[in-house]
Amino acid sequence: MRGVNSEEDVYRSGFCAFVGRPNAGKSTLTNALVGSKIVITSDKPQTTRRAVRGVLSRPDGQLVLVDTPGLHRPRTLLGQRLNDVVRGTLADVDVIGFCLPADEKIGPGDRFIAAELSQLKAPVVAIVTKTDRASKPRIAEQLMAVGQLGEFAEVVPVSAVAGEQVDLLADLLIARLPTGPQLYPSEVRTDESDESRIAELIREAALADVRDELPHSIAVTVEEMNPRDTEGRPPLLDIFATLHLERTSQRPIILGAGGSRLKRIGTDARHGIEELLGQRVNLKLHVSVMGEWQRDPKKLDRLGF
């Protein structure tokens, strides 16, 4: 289907970054636009820890979406590096999607981001997300409030969960891309490696089962991925991964009674990994303590931040 960018023989391609404060719905919206789960989601702030690219390919253009960590007031070196990732990404994209939830009032964080975006050259589309969680009067009120935050190319209400206005948003974003060739093969949905996506699926399963400050203290690395000789039976992949925590006191929390929580995390993650890879997986999880890794530059480097 051709969208608003429907001039004959015009093909547009380029990059769009989603930005917003933590838990503004950026990752869920990225997945909805791409049509596949490429970014993990959680109700925990700072779930996204790096710029993840998803690719939407259509007959009239190709939109490369960059889901970024939430801009926030950093309390650790990790937080500073996540903010640096966002600012570095915004400097290199063709259009920006500024996400603001419909069910939350605009706050200082939103105004801070709006001020930063006003200094950039790329057009900004303000996206009022999570409209399925708000009444129509509340959505109308939020649209008016967002319109007063700055000069935006568009202000669009969207529900990624309900699929409302997602196609319209894609039309509007693609229309603001430069003309250019296809950047990725049509079948590609993301350029993330399987190893990175597996680590994120494990972290997503862990986040779903913990609370308080522990979510911020969890990092995951995949140590080994070894195909097993199954002698004619369906292929099986042995995956060994480590959950890194910051303090010894966090170990019993992530392990649970008799290792029950870690086993549940492994079971939940394995289902997602098997769906991703299309084959059976034997997942082995190990828990390690890497003291105060969020504040240590060498440990952050080792973990890929």
Distance between the termini: 39 Å
Question: Percent range for helical residues?
Answer: 25-40%
Q: Give unreliable regions as ranges.
A: 1-6
Strand order, largest beta sheet: 2-3-1-4-5-6
- The biggest beta sheet, please? 6 strands, mixed
Total beta-strand segments: 9
Helix-strand blueprint:
Layout: E1 12-19, H1 26-34, E2 52-58, E3 61-67, H2 77-90, E4 95-101, H3 108-117, E5 124-129, H4 136-147, E6 154-157, H5 166-175, H6 194-207, H7 214-217, E7 219-228, E8 236-245, H8 251-255, H9 260-277, E9 280-289, H10 297-302
Parallel strand pairs: 1-3, 1-4, 4-5, 5-6, 8-9
Antiparallel strand pairs: 2-3, 7-8
What does this 3D model show about the protein?
- With 305 residues, the protein is α/β, with parallel strands linked by helices.
- The chain is built from 10 helices and 9 strands.
- The strands form 2 sheets. The protein has a 6-stranded mixed sheet, with helices on both faces. Strands 7-8-9 form a 3-stranded mixed sheet.
- It is globular, with a radius of gyration of 20 Å.
- The chain starts with 11 loop residues before the first strand and ends with a helix.
